Amino acid sequence: MFIVNGVSGASLHCINFGVATDPCCGTGSFLEEVILNDPNDGAYNLCGFEILPTPYMLSNYRLSIVSRQHGAGAHTENIMLANTLCNGMFGEVVDESTIEGAEIARASTWAEMPLKLIIGNPPCSDSMRQNIDSEFSFINGLMDDFRPPKTARRARQNIQKQINNPFMQFIRWSCEKLLRLQNNSVLSLVVPLSFLEAESYRYARKYLMEHFSNIWVVPIDADARTGIRSNSLFHTLQGRAVIILTRKFGEDPGFSEYQFVDFSKGSISEKENCLNQDINQVIGQFRTYNIDVNTLAFYPAKPFDEDKYNLFWPISDDNDHNAIFMNHCSGIKLAPTALFTHVKAPMLKRRSRDIAAGGVDAAREWFSGQDKPPVAEKVEAFQSALNSCGNAPAMDQLLSENIATYSFRPYLTSNVLLWEDVLKNYSTVGGGGTRLRPEIIKGFNHQGTIGFAMAHAPKDLHPTLSQFVSFCWYYPDNDMCTRGNSHIYMNQYYDKRRNMYRLNVSPDLFEKLGPVLQCNYEEFASSIVFYAYAVLCSQVYLDEFEGALFTVNQSDIRARIPMVADRGLFIRIRDLGIRLAELEKADYRPENLLEFDYDMICSQIPRNFHLSNSPHPFDEENEELVLTDGTEIIKVPCPTALQNLNISGYDVVKNVWLKFNSYNFTHCDFTPQDAEKLLNFLNTLETHTRIVAEIDNLMPSVLEDGMPLISPSED
Questions:
Q1: Is 160 exposed, middle or buried (0-12, 13-18, 19+ CB in 10 A)?
Q2: What pLDDT was estimated at residue 321?
Q3: 288 SS3 class
Q4: Largest CA-CA distance found in the chain, in angstroms, rounded
Q5: Is 34 helix (H, G, I), strand (E, B) or coil?
Q6: Better-scored residue on pLDDT, 99 or 205
Q7: What DSSP string describes 463-492?
Q8: Residue 557: predicted pLDDT
Q9: Buried b vs exposed e over 366-404: b needs ≥16 C-beta within 10 Å?
């Protein structure tokens, strides 16, 4: 593979009489490749550390076989059973009378030798929290180098959550072993793709920049969690990349640019061909990029007009800089969502009554076929709460009083049992996960509250930049954007400390733009919501500033909105935003823009039709949507543009409407009335595309040179 056959393999001559190490060697495949890709049979030592007995034994066996077949020469191999990250590997005295202690002592001796090459594929887990007790105090102390400066640290800070991820600990261990030695060295590791640009790893990247001389970066697998088809070599959803760092001893360390080539877009065979190229072939494919001083990313962004973009207003800013909205909040997280929502309110009541009577068995029947059915513990807690009502009429009254309209997904209004007492208890039941968001509840309880859900990390939603906002007229779900990525921006919010509602738009922006628009503060706040929503839906705007917008989450860098000082142009865009937002009202009825024969299509729906959530519902060639229950087939005209429409990370026809109206989720027949709702839904999406086209016609005027803009104040 390129990891070895490329830079590392070409560097074997420089590790003669030194040590090449894999600190998490598994079954020894990386060390095996070092041997196989060294035609000169160099005089070097290979050592590997592995914590699990089975792969440890297998790696010893594999390397002995390879050495015999390759012709054992000047190199040696040593595989040791040890936890690389424990204090014993940093010189702490261990009990050598035990097998474990003896192996750690031997491994520690090897780890103190003049290491010149460290390679490997460290374990990676967002949830793994091992290696954090006193036995690992040394590595945990070193991890401070990957944290923000102490003056910038806060409790529950998201960018510190990944510090104890094992792969981060292995990177820091490798740095500690290489950088203290008086020789040239190479570090080549497989890392999550997100390491290249995610904010959580910014200070780890900064450390590498300051302590090594050069870096080569090779994305191997794209992040399949965005919904793309996976051609993964590493068989993970997370995506993988290789980083290769070199350090020249005797020279001042530090680099401000990186060498980059992307192999993640090809098929598996294409990737293998790329990775198996000779280094002299592949080196010319690298391109040099300067490292952005703000993000410190090792991943290039598409160029954009930075001077113009800096004249726009950030949608929000966690560092209290001038921004459009003063507050935002994640949407409601129900956990389990399936237990509290249904697209039909009567069925939500019926299902709740069935669970009250039949408990887990009834729930199992209702949720069979769903990808994430509620766990038994949460079903039992729900059953107990319902039965505490005392009798059936009281239960029915409680259900009626607490079922509300719900902004569930883009262009899908559902119904939610927003039973606050139970949902608060759910934060601790069955693993927790529920977040009721009282500020959201209070906000949307108040007359006139409007808002939109926005993803702060559009790159986490979809492999290409697409619309990453959706409008909220009702209580919004946390998954209005995929992967729990939605942040809600409202025109007003509830101020708990002052026990009052306050407008949520910057007073500084109102002071500058309010006189232009000739409106009061309350009208201004609503206008800003609709205007910002319209701009964020514009494909012209997305294309022009893709380099700035198509990012991972960065707490101090948010999408920016141009605020035009031309009253007429602002109002035209705002009014298009209003029209666009109205499409997401529960009672919206569209024009028949797609010219459906409603009666003919609806009459084709047979009795007892159970709509399937088919993984392949489209006939793209004939521009049709295929409805089926596994036996019957009904074809509905559906333009390709609507089939492919992606909003906030969702393919809204396939993964929103069809999914939550399928039998697995409704547990009821799909009727001609439901077919009518589907046709209305498709016409609504067609209306959406046409309104966005109208916004796109205005956006060049907003972005053209000379258009007067209201800019944020200088800090």
A1: middle
A2: 67
A3: strand
A4: 85
A5: helix
A6: 205
A7: SS----EEEESSEEBTTSSGGG-EEEEESE
A8: 79
A9: bbeebeebbbeebbbbbbebbeeeeeeeebeebbeebbb
